[in-house]
Design a protein that fits this description.
about 80 residues, alpha+beta, four-stranded mixed β-sheet, globular
């Protein structure tokens, strides 16, 4: 499974705890983050309090595709 496919699976499996955002930049205000995946150059963190994801290690194009996938998940709920 490539990094994008892995990211989609992790996001889908944890969507209910991260319904309010998907970012590829680190938060600067110190929100508490939990690492839910960190392998093979892909790192996904979640902020359970504010319910959002931070995803690192994807190309710009891959992240854009992940954002579209995330939007579809939000729309389907």
């Amino acid at each position: 499974m490539n990094k994008l496919a892995t990211a989609k699976k992790i996001i889908k499996d944890n969507f209910e705890e991260g319904r309010f955002g998907l970012f590829n930049t680190r938060n600067l205000v110190g929100d508490p983050m939990t690492i839910i995946f960190d392998r093979e150059g892909l790192r996904i963190e979640i902020c359970y309090y504010y319910e959002y994801f931070e995803v690192f290690g994807l190309s710009k194009e891959e992240f854009e595709e992940l954002k579209e996938y995330y939007k579809k998940l939000r729309k389907d709920r």
